[in-house]
Amino acid sequence: MAGGDGMGHLVETVHALAYSNLPIQIVAVCERNEDARTATMAMHTNVPTKALGFCRNIAELMRRG
Predict the structure, then answer these.
(1) Fewest CB atoms within 10 A around its CB: which of 14, 38, 43, 59?
(2) How far apart are CA 51 and CA 30, in angstroms?
(3) Alpha carbon distance 40, 49 (integer Å)
(4) 23: DSSP letter
């Protein structure tokens, strides 16, 4: 997650995870950072990747498998 309550360097972190050869899927919560969301959505990755804007359902997102 990124934004006021999240971490920095979100796009770089998504890129590193996407090419880590881990069996994962990525859901990047970019909050109101539209530049990060656009950059993440444009990224070609090796794993399923989604970029979301502001979300009120973080707990639900974390429970999904």
Answers:
(1) 59
(2) 7
(3) 8
(4) S
